[in-house]
Specification:
Layout lengths: L1 E5 L9 E3 L11 E3 L16 E5 L1 E2 L28 H9 L7 H11 L4 E4 L6 H12 L9 E4 L3 H14 L8 E4 L5 H7 L6 E4 L1 H10 L9 E4 L2 H6 L3 H9 L6 E6 L4 H10 L4 E4 L12 E7 L6 H9 L7 E4 L3 H13 L4 E4 L5 H13 L4 E4 L14 E4 L6 H8 L9 E7 L1 H8 L8 E4 L17 E6 L9 H10 L11 E3 L4 E6 L3 H8 L3 E2 L2 E2 L2 E3 L2
Helix pairs in contact: 2-3, 3-4, 6-8
Length: 536
């Protein structure tokens, strides 16, 4: 932290500009409104007054930046923060051993009720950082919405909702709900008969609820703007302004963004009150994780790209792969191409219905698919652990997009590889970006595609669809029990289970899928007869 002398004297007013040596990564010159500029000084107080520059970062390399208090501590534990026993139990159950740098910097001021603006790269643990601060303030005995988290995408709604539910698992009667477009409004309204304590929503759907008065935010304590740069990029500024105008003025506001362009800084100035500005990574905030390997493959012509893609993701160490394309048509084209070469590929783009998107994400998460081809709708909010490979088939238009795409792998210290397939012309543009300075460039002459490519190994798991979900009071435990007792599986053989409003997905071993499917036909789960089908 830095203390600046405010040289305001009698008759002097207006905002002052200060160059903060720790603010360069957040946009450089900051414009702070001097709190004494709008009113006369009292007698005898003509001396300059101290003003606190609220910029913190663990990067102590900047000139004049002191070490120590601002930097994350290697021995700091979650128990060192004023968290409730219920939250500490949730943290322990999730095997969170030590707070990440962003969690260390955000938790203390956020728990004290201060506004926070945080810049952090993907995979830094910011959801848990603000989630713990939000859940600490929730009173589960009050039937009111006390916290609102606005996010830019439907997938991110589900990811954040599930993360908060896991963190707050041991808080009695805690209700966390997610609302987004493409989801039946009548189901959401029905669920609001029991008002959730925490709402995670896209701006458009949240505004719908405010207009209908199905949600009245008069007891809101905390507002979170997550992925603020993406919210603005997708054109949600007007919706956010309308939503915020209807919230209590006395509230805490937390804002997080992977980048801090001028538009995001304008949000900070407009909606946050004397915020603590946290920059994880300092001047190097745009640097991708050290465990991420960046490889650039230069092909002589664009028509060689499909063969190059097939060559890269067919390697034995490719694992689960995410392929980025710039248009929906290209996504569909590449998905058909890869399936035709025997790869278990799924598509994900904005024009797909929500159940189709859920199915594609689920199949990648549980191993039923090995490749997901997506537009940038998946760059934020894609909830897939241990994603091994990212391939940017089409070059990104901006450096921020390059960073967000590549950052989907090598998260939280894991190892991953991000590939770019480019022509020489595309390479020249990307080489000028600071985020791409560590790309290892090499020419690639992909092997010719055979007329009939050999089939890749079939996935070890397949996904079964169950015709019951949360509306039928079905839980993961209920489904696991049914697949063991009726389906004949060993408990360890039951894979990932995801429960939605009216249906569920269960991953089972491919070798036993047909037998399990036959056993489960007409079975009852929690007294309700269900239909089970194989997801193709």
């Amino acid at each position: 932290m830095f203390r600046w002398q405010c040289p305001v004297g009698s008759g002097v007013g207006g905002p002052f500009q200060w160059q903060c040596p720790r603010g360069t990564a957040l946009g450089g010159l900051f414009r702070w409104q001097c709190p004494w500029a709008a009113r006369p000084l009292r007698a005898g107080t003509g001396a300059p007054r101290p003003y606190l520059c609220p910029v913190q970062t663990p990067d102590t390399s900047a000139a004049g930046a002191p070490s120590g208090a601002s930097a994350p501590k290697a021995d700091l534990q979650f128990a060192d923060f004023a968290l409730s026993p219920a939250l500490l139990a949730g943290v322990a159950e999730l095997n969170f051993i030590q707070p990440t740098p962003v969690q260390q910097l955000v938790l203390a001021p956020a728990l004290q009720g201060q506004d926070v603006a945080g810049q952090a790269p993907t995979g830094s643990g910011k959801t848990a950082a603000y989630g713990l601060a939000v859940l600490q303030q929730v009173d589960p005995t009050s039937a009111s919405m006390q916290a609102l988290v606005l996010v830019p995408a439907r997938e991110l709604v589900l990811q954040v909702r599930d993360a908060l539910q896991r963190l707050g698992k041991h808080i009695p009667n805690l209700r966390v709900a997610g609302y987004y477009g493409g989801h039946a409004m009548r189901d959401e309204v029905k669920g609001l008969q029991q008002m959730p304590h925490v709402v995670v929503a896209t701006p458009g759907r949240m505004l719908d609820h405010l207009e209908r008065r199905t949600i009245v935010p008069n007891r809101l304590k905390v507002l979170v703007l997550d992925e603020a740069d993406k919210l603005l990029e997708l054109g949600f500024q007007e919706e956010m302004a309308t939503i915020i105008s209807r919230l209590p003025q006395r509230r805490q506001t937390l804002l997080f963004s992977a980048t801090m362009p001028d538009k995001v800084l304008s949000l900070v100035r407009e909606y946050l009150t004397r915020p603590r500005v946290m920059n994880v990574g300092g001047a190097n905030a745009t640097t991708l994780p050290e465990s991420l390997v960046l490889r650039g493959h230069v092909v002589s012509a664009a028509d060689q790209k499909p063969a190059a893609l097939y060559h890269l993701i067919s390697q034995a160490d490719a694992g689960r792969s995410l392929v980025f394309a710039n248009t929906r048509d290209r996504v569909e084209e590449l998905t058909r191409f890869l399936r035709g070469r025997g790869l278990a590929a799924e598509a994900l783009h904005g024009k797909m219905l929500q159940p189709e998107r859920d199915k594609s994400m689920m199949k990648l998460r549980n191993g039923s698919a090995t490749v997901l081809v997506a537009t940038d709708v998946a760059a934020r909010g894609l909830d897939v652990n241990d994603l091994d490979t990212v391939v940017q088939f089409d070059p990104p238009h901006e450096t921020d997009t390059f960073q967000h795409r590549a950052g989907r792998t090598a998260r939280a210290g894991a190892v991953g590889t991000a590939h770019l397939i480019v022509t020489p012309f595309e390479q020249e543009k990307i080489k000028s970006w600071p985020t791409a300075r560590n790309v290892q460039w090499a020419g690639l002459r992909p092997p010719a595609l055979p007329a009939a490519a050999p089939k890749a190994p079939r996935p070890s798991t397949v996904t079964l669809h169950v015709s019951a979900g949360k509306s039928e009071k079905i839980s993961r435990g209920d489904l696991a029990g049914a697949f063991v007792s009726v389906g004949g599986l060993e408990r360890d053989a039951v894979g990932r289970i995801e429960v939605f409003d009216h249906h569920s997905f269960v991953a089972v071993p491919e070798a036993q899928a047909e037998e399990v499917l036959a056993r489960m036909q007409g079975a009852k789960v929690k007294g309700k007869k269900v239909k089970v089908a194989l997801i193709r």
